[in-house]
Amino acid sequence: MNTKFRFAAPVVLLCASAPLIAQDGTSGDDLADEIIVTGDGLEQALSTGAYSVTEIDREAIISSGSGRIEDVLQNVAGFQQFRRSDSRSANPSAQGVTLRALGGNATSRALVTLDGVPIGDPFFGYIPLSSIAPELLSGIRVTRGGGSGPFGAGALAGTIELESAGPATLGPVSASLLANDREETEASVAVAQKLGSGFAVVSGRWDRGQGFLTTPPGQRVPATARAAFDSWTLGLRAVAPLAPDVELQASGRVFDDSRTLRFDGADSTSEGQDASLRLVGRGDWQFDALAYVQARNFSNVVISSTRFTRVLDQRNTPSTGLGGKIEIRPPLAEAHNVRLGVDYRRSDGELQEEAYSAFTGALRERRRAGGSTSNLGVFVEDDWQIGPLLLTGGLRADHTRIEDGFFRALDADGSLIGETLAPDRSDWTLGWRAGALFYATRRLELRAAAYTGLRLPTLNELYRPFVVFPVVTQANAALVNERLEGFEIGFDWQPIDALVVSLTAFDNEVENAIANVTIAPNLRERQNLPAIEAQGIEAALAAVVGDFSLDASLAYTDATIAGEGASVALDGNRPPQTPRIAGSATLAWLSAQGWRVAATLRHVGAQFEDDQQTDRLPAATTLDLFAEAPLVDRLSLVLRGENLFDEAIVTRNSGGSIDLGAPRTVWFGLRYGW
């Protein structure tokens, strides 16, 4: 039901694609007999077998206790959010994700794609988790380790690929409506229809609620507020054939998310409008051509934790992301699978904020900051099959550019207080990865891989200072690219048909790792650390006995900061927000009559809030439950439970000022067709 392994049992563009049903005078009926449209990308290359890969099937995706995508991903060994909060009670700009406990500063070190399109925010680098409806996905593939291939410059710690479901999975109409014991609601609907030989899916989701009190009882004040949330997403996806072996895919999404965090008036919003076109050819010369554009915005009000008045209004952060790729797979040799390509990404954005006096409420400063970053990559990869041995290797050259960077502060009268004009800069970086997969027996695969990875600093890290009162974190326009070097060895073993065991040992190092470094009491700055080193073991197990299944994962990581010079005091410290151990286990029952029950036990070890290792976040163990009972036709009754132990999950600790995660929550509702 949960993790499976490789061998285990704008909108006008969308509308334009729908009429492309017949070509060269062929009728739609005739074409329907000849063409199979999938809506997917090209088949995965054999090289994925040489790396540590976990696949999550649809049963696991739609059977989580919370109904959130981050909850689903928590079952993958090594997956980590910057904070333990979910996408209802976290500041959106803190929703960075990574793999292998490589630490972070709220920016994602893992590349996350939806139908091949990178979805990270162009300005901040976070992942808009609340905009992703798990019930609209057909599967998830997680590949750990430094990336190559398309958009590899963003896959420092690995890649998380989300794939949308089509009509065959969703059915003509699917819907769900649930409410919880705090009178919060979750509503979702999808209409999927075949159009000749193609199809279209229209979907929407709306989540709203008063939220819970993230502040512990002993720290609550009259200004304390619940973590209220109100978010919605609308999507349209269409797929149509252009030829028997060529299909056009077009997608558009709009989303909006509003949240309140800790105090009355501490409101944040994030919004986005995304569109993409993709052309996939599956003939002798296979190709995958993609173009996308993103328009995003973010706002956030900071409330003083002592006087409970507005001190900062980050009222507007418009940003734009655009990019694309062309990948070609020529039929060069029978034993080889060669992939050639080029990809490009560009991010532009500007912060617009005002700072106010906590005592008088008067305007003190107006601040503007922003710039642009871009990356042009050229890559080549080859898989070579020699009997039971598969060799794979790839090279990637990246030209990165950071330009037009600035920070400007004016007082209330418009006089200049300070200004930074960052020089433009660019660089070329050569990356590579190589691996081997040996089919030792029909049931045992041995694998080894080594790789590099690359990540540009985001506009947020370069130019935007921020405050989590009373701590001020300064930006740093001189930040350089992060670079990962690492290797791993492992095996996948299926001793019997009903059992799969996977084990991977890895050693990864992130040079020039960007972190929030303490330079004075209540003052931090983003800096490039010499390195973050992480060695560890990831294990997974999947077993099926009749109608029952067990899926478990465990990650143990020994991660440390390698400090020198200005950061020598950090040498040997664990990176912030990094646990040594994390694991989960899901026991599920799925009957032939449609009954579905799943219980997930999850444990996350203790971690530190800060680089000084003074603010500790205790370990947390949670139990989630999902149950679905068929009623009539495709209608079923759904019961979900989050954190049934009612564990006090500490998500933030700043000098003893605590935030908590979701308490025990019970959901009840109906589902049709999912």
Please provide a written account of the structure:
The chain is mainly β and 674 residues long. It has a single domain, classed as Maltoporin, Chain A (Beta Barrel), CATH 2.40.170.20. The protein contains six helices and 40 strands. The strands form six sheets. The chain has a 24-stranded antiparallel β-sheet that branches. A six-stranded mixed β-sheet has the order 1-2-7-8-5-6. A hairpin with a 6-residue loop joins strand 18 and strand 19. It starts with a strand and ends with a strand. Residues 1-32 have low confidence and may be disordered.
Lay out the secondary structure:
Blueprint: E1 3-4, H1 11-17, H2 28-34, E2 53-56, H3 58-61, H4 69-73, E3 79-81, E4 97-99, E5 111-114, E6 117-118, E7 137-144, E8 158-164, H5 167-170, E9 173-180, E10 185-195, E11 198-209, E12 229-243, E13 246-260, E14 267-281, E15 286-303, E16 310-316, E17 319-329, E18 336-356, E19 363-386, E20 389-411, E21 416-421, E22 425-441, E23 444-455, H6 459-463, E24 466-468, E25 471-474, E26 482-496, E27 499-511, E28 514-520, E29 523-528, E30 531-545, E31 548-562, E32 581-590, E33 596-604, E34 607-608, E35 616-617, E36 620-632, E37 635-642, E38 650-654, E39 657-660, E40 665-672
